[in-house]
Design a protein that fits this description.
Elements lengths: L6 E3 L9 E5 H10 L7 E5 L5 E10 L2 E11 L7 E5 L6 H11 L4 E6 L10 H14 L7 E2 L3 E2 H7 L5 E5 L8 H7 L8 E5 L7 H9 L3 E4 L8 H16 L11
The protein binds S-adenosyl-L-homocysteine (SAH).
The site of S-adenosyl-L-homocysteine (SAH) has 17 residues, from helix 7.
């Protein structure tokens, strides 16, 4: 039996004895890509019931049936940090979503700014990338994907208790390490990281962001980073300074 554990996200409820039917992509992945056979095990999670070991009981062309055996990990919530980002080109956005998922984001929120050239965002595709990264990174949850909104609408709807760590490339903001060290919120308070588009934020957007009480502007050093680099660097700092990298465990969500 192959020894690399396969982890799959499913929508179904998970409990001992439940039968799970897979088709489409997941069935193809299990049978053709990973060459699993009847009797092999796979790990399943749904974001609610923890992680479960299941056994393949039947396989047919394009479909696969599993029976759930036992729970391998209880459900746990991950750190409460969102990523708000101006979408970049296809391919690069897929990668950003996957890597941010590995870094533990609880939600992904694409935002249209004045200098964003992307008219539409394929939310289903973002979710598929998030699921794949959640499966591979041993998460127990999949980040939620918010609707693509224009920045003013997003800011209007913003839950005020959630701090927004705004990656500000102007050179005037304090370093992210200083800003997070000073953060008055308790460690588990909700946060979000905000990064702008390739062309940066427009003047009016900078002015609006500066006035908002829930926004903390931070610098990521003297170099101009690509939006994706900035997003991942900020998330890594957040995780190391106030997130779950401070805890010596590996099986968080
Ligand atoms: N302003 C530049 C590039 C924007 S980079 C231009 O006009 O071409 C895209 C986004 O990455 C920025 O809006 C900012 O959110 C983030 N970013 C890039 N480098 C940064 C840095 N050194 N510090 C903080 N944020 C940065």
């Amino acid at each position: 039996m192959p020894d690399t554990a396969i982890r799959l996200h499913v929508a179904d409820d998970l409990a001992t004895g439940r039968h799970i039917a897979l088709d489409g992509g997941p069935a193809h992945y299990l049978a053709t890509v990973m060459r699993r056979r009847v009797g092999d095990a796979a790990l399943l999670f749904n974001g609610r019931d923890g992680e479960w070991r299941a056994r393949i009981e039947a396989m047919a062309r394009g479909s696969c049936a599993l029976v759930v055996e036992a729970r391998t990990r209880p459900q746990a919530d991950g750190p409460d940090v969102w990523l708000v980002f101006a979408p970049v080109k296809r391919g690069r956005i897929d990668d950003l979503v996957g890597r941010a998922t590995e870094l533990g984001v609880a939600a992904l929120w694409p935002v249209r700014t004045e200098r964003t050239n992307v008219a539409r965002v394929n939310a289903a595709r973002l979710r598929a990338n998030a699921i794949e990264a959640a499966e591979q990174s041993e998460r127990l949850t999949v980040p939620m994907v918010h609707d693509y909104l224009a920045l003013p609408a997003l800011l209007e709807r913003w839950p005020r208790e959630r701090r927004m760590l705004w990656c500000d490339e102007s050179g005037t903001a304090p370093s992210i390490a200083d800003a997070l060290a000073r953060a008055s919120q308790p460690l588990r308070a909700p946060w979000a990281v905000l990064v702008g588009p390739e062309g940066g934020f427009a003047r009016s957007e900078l002015d609006a962001l500066r006035k908002l009480p829930f926004v903390t502007a931070v610098s990521l050093g003297p170099r101009a980073l690509r939006a994706e680099t900035a997003a991942l660097a900020a998330l890594a700092c957040w995780q190391a300074l106030i997130g779950d990298w401070q805890e010596a465990h590996r099986h968080g969500s």
